[in-house]
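Standup notes
- DV: blocked on the single-chain target, sequence here:
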Amino acid sequence: MNNSVSVPSRTAGGDPAAFSKPPVRARIEKAIRNLLNVLVLLGSVLVIAALSFEVFHDSQQLYYKSYMKIQLWVCIVFLIDFFYRLYLSPKKMRFVWRNFLFFLVAIPYLHLVPYFQMNPASEISYIFRLMPLVRGGYGLAITVGWITRSKLTSLLVSYILIILSLTYFASLVFFMLEHPVNPAVTSYGEALWWAFMNVTTVGSNIFARTGTGEVLSVVLAASGMMLFPIFTVYITSRFQSHKQQGGQSGADEAGS
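- DV (later): unblocked, structure below
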């Protein structure tokens, strides 16, 4: 997927032979790439929406079949995109290395296990059950990356989107993992409150009971410590720029 939609590593590479391709073939390949860009972006949004719907409506049993179908079709789109760009890439091993994470996320593990009647270990099964969450996070990263790379999006807006997206996704994962085992997490609102309090480094009175929840607490606090100072620097620089402009205007008026 090219840089207009997905993460920077997902490129087909610079192909010197592209200039010698027939114009019709080049146009067809470009049209297919653009179509896959749109489909991957829509699939990413759909994964996030499906995951959110499951959390908000607490309809795991009723919604499970439709949710799994959505996951399967999104995985198919991701895999088609991956293999098509692998086919176009002149340096295939480098392409696989740079996009290996995307390939792992695109594999529909929860469909392959029952289809091949596999019986993985409990630790592997736990990882497979977490893959839809990882896929949702990857889809969110693609969506936010596409928005923040727009020329119309300022630096401040980009950082705000990153913080809000990280907080939202962490709250979804925290609620899905902690709700069954943590009596302090009785609704999604409490999980969202926990996420916002941790990302602001204030801390929450809700403590994680699972290993993943504890890791998320550290990740949110670290992200807050890294990103919030950027807001301070941005606001300070804007204030200083405005003050300098005001001083320059006053000097010009005095000189005239």
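- Follow-up: Residues 211-255 form the longest helix (45 residues).
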